[in-house]
Amino acid sequence: MSDGKERINNKQFRDILICVMWPATINYGSGILARRVGRDMWICGIISILTVLPFIIMAIRIGRNFPGKTVVEYSTDLLGTVLGKALGLLISIYFFILASSSITMYIQHLTGFLLPGTPFLVVSTLHIFIICYLIWNGYEVVGRTSVIAFAMAIIFYLLVFMACLPEIDLDRILPAFDSGFFPVLKSSIDSDSFVGFVPLLVGLLLPIVHDKKKAFSSAAAGLLIGGGFFVFYFVAELMVMGPQVVAMMRIASMDFVRSIQITKYLHRFESFMVALWYWSIMTQAGIAALCSLEGFMQTVKIKKKSPVVIIIFGLALVTFTYYIGKNDVLFLKIREYLWKYISVPIDFGVPLLLFCALGFKKITRFAEKKL
Q1: Taking the CB of the first residue and of the last residue of the chain, which one, N or C, has fewer CB atoms within 10 A?
Q2: What is the predicted pLDDT for the residue at 329?
Q3: DSSP one-letter string for 96-134
Q4: How far apart are CA 4 and CA 139, in angstroms?
Q5: Are 157 and 256 in contact (CB under 8 A)?
Q6: Could you tell me which residue, 252 or 349, shows the higher pLDDT?
């Protein structure tokens, strides 16, 4: 690790994982899944949660064999210098793209509904300035921010629950597996493309978690709570708007919030809801960007963050975000049709590769001792 003094407690670790699970998933995921399997989209979410859990176990088991090292650092121990550094660079680039994608989703949300006349570049630059501030202050500040974000998420979902109660119709989510078991199982890959990076994130954060003995319980709690958030939102969207309407939306989450009201006097509270949602999407982008930079520094052996490094990183993030996000339709097509073929092999392939390499290394050592 670049800074052995940084620590986050287990509550912060849990809350970071909660914050990366739900904000982007409800933003783009519901529309994508509704177009695939209609009313069964919430089942895809549950399958994804259950799919990610074993890979979190893998990440923690591998990490415990290399105390104080991140997945980037112990990759060279398991795969050799060349392959290990190549994998570390891949992970760094991957989290850079994840951060940019998260920022793009937020900016498109903001400019599409609340600030339609504001140039994408202006809003994204301001948002990335905040992300760079989080990067400069490190994991501890991101961890404290995630605690606030979790509290804001609870308020967000309580308001959604109260607002949608008069509108719910259970017939809109039944019968289960209306699209068939295998189509739902196949479409869960689209959901995996939003939440599947959590095992890699665990591999990067584990060395700085205060109580590593309780790391799995904290990670599992974060996965289940964050997953429960977006599954609940999927169900609420379906019961209020129906699968056909959700499928028509590019950002169904905002149209859902705009369609519900708490009282007859408060008809348009979407700005307040976006403010609550912002804390989690900011944490998601911040932790992804920080992991990207730290992963790159660990790969090329840069030992200390400097303002110059962060400025260069921020400018690269602004540039990349602008080019992938300025065209809403193009970004949606990439996110819906292409991204899963890139993300899912990395999300699940890297932990599986390292787990197998660790097993092979242990078997080899055992055989050598026997000889």
Answers
A1: C
A2: 87
A3: HHHHHHHHHHHHHHHHHHT-TTS-HHHHHHHHHHHHHHH
A4: 11
A5: no
A6: 349
Distances (CA, A) of 253 to 6, 7, 191, 312: 36, 34, 15, 34
Rg over alpha carbons for the chain, rounded to the nearest Å, is: 21
- pLDDT tens for 18-42 read 999 999 999 999 999 999 999 999 9
Contact 223, 52 (CB under 8 A): yes
Q: What distance separates the 2 farthest-apart alpha carbons in the chain?
A: 80
Question: What are 169's two structure tokens?
Answer: 């119709």
* Nearest-angstrom CA–CA distance, 108 and 316: 19
Kindly report the number of other CB atoms within 10 A of residue 251's CB atom: 19
Strand partners, 209: 8
**What is the signed CA dihedral for 40, 45, 49, 50, rounded to 10 degrees?**
10
**Which 8-state DSSP code applies to residue 338?**
I
For the chain, the structural domain boundaries read 10-370
Give the DSSP letter string of 36-99.
Answer: HHGGGHHHHHHHHHHHHHHHHHHHHHHHHTSTT--HHHHHHHHH-HHHHHHHHHHHHHHHHHHH
Instruction: Copy the structure tokens of residue 12.
Output: 């912060």
Beta carbons of 222 and 10 less than 8 angstroms apart: no
For the entire predicted model, the pTM comes to 0.94
pLDDT band at 266 (very low <50, low <70, confident <90, very high): low
Could you give the CA distance from residue 186 to residue 60 in angstroms, rounded to a whole number? 27
Distance of alpha carbon 288 from alpha carbon 350, whole angstroms: 17
**What does the block give as tokens for 327?**
């065209």
Q: Fold for 10-370, please state it.
A: Amino acid/polyamine transporter I (1.20.1740)
Residues 56-76 pLDDT 10s: 999 999 999 999 999 999 999
